[in-house]
Amino acid sequence: MSASSREIDAGGRGEPDRHARGDVDPRAWREETASLGMWVFLATELMFFGGLFLAYLYLRTHDPEGVAAASTHTHEWLGTINTAILLTSSFAMALAVHAAKDARRKAAQRLLVVTAAFGLAFLVVKGIEYGMEWRDGLVPGLRFTLAENTRTATLFFFLYFVATGIHAVHLAIGVATVLWIAWRLRAAALPGWRVDEIDVLGLYWHFVDAVWIFLYPLFYLVNLNA
Amino acid sequence: MKAGRPIRAYAITWAALLLLLALTFGLAHLKLGAFNPVASLVIAAVKAALVALFFMHLRRARALLVLFALVAPFALAILFALSGADYATREVHPAPWVAPRGE
Fold first, then answer.
1. Could you list the residue range(s) of the whole structural domain that residue B50 is in?
2. What is the DSSP-derived secondary structure letter of residue A5?
């Protein structure tokens, strides 16, 4: 490494730009561009969910009492259990990515299956919850029989089903993809198998977890102190 | 990134997330007035930050990646600020025909 190349520092953090130096590690380069691409996708995803959060903010600030009354019909214990399940799934996913980077294929594969199992558990609990809400007549447009049938209650449950429904679809896609990659990992020692695939899948999984972290207090914790 | 340390960091992050979950669930049961929604949103933000920094590796990411990660929350903040300025300063006059049946 020559002294002049050391002066080029386009990457920040005081490291010389490896591309200017001409010795780019293709694997590291691929991993970096892969996660950059996933972060761009997650940015669009955040804007996508952002509209729903804005609609919620409008409803909450314009009729706080109505939202508080409607929110008493959600099942806060199921929501809390599901939050714990999802946080734990993210922990398993972080360990899976770590194992993959350490080239511990079996461990990565097992941890991916554990991650998917927690994701499935979340979806099962959510499904049970939806069933209870259907029986309670909380589904706007299809079966809405709430005694205090106000515009706010209707909008609250409309937002609830759209936001948690879209979140559940995201999680289902995550579970399917995690299982697919775990399945492909079974073939021993694929030459240079794609660590970046698992890394990027991890980013997606954690993002879906982070969306739920915000949905949880907005729909379950509004009015528990009444 | 060899054995030991990252795994411990992940475990501590996970424990902190579950602790914050218990905290936010507990606080929601207390009568704190305006502090209730503030507490639940601040705790949610802290949890999301922990996930982003540790599970999503933003803590050790290059500046470019951190910038990409911050663009969306920033754009979202603009959406909230400008729409919020409108909604907060405007009186709502619902036209009679927008009222749903039964009201």
1. 1-56
2. H
CB of A159 closer than 8 Å to CB of A59: yes
Residue spans of the domains in chain A: they are 30-220
Q: Is B50 exposed, middle or buried (0-12, 13-18, 19+ CB in 10 A)?
A: buried
Mutation to test the B interface, candidates A213, A219, A220, most B Cβ within 10 Å: A213
- pTM (predicted TM-score): 0.87
B74 with B35, same domain? no
Domain A30-220, second-level architecture: Up-down Bundle (1.20)
* pLDDT tens column, A27-57: 778 888 899 999 999 999 999 999 999 999 9
CB of B3 less than 8 A from some CB of A: yes
- State whether B65 and A36 contact (CB < 8 Å): yes
Strand, coil or helix: what is A143?
A: strand
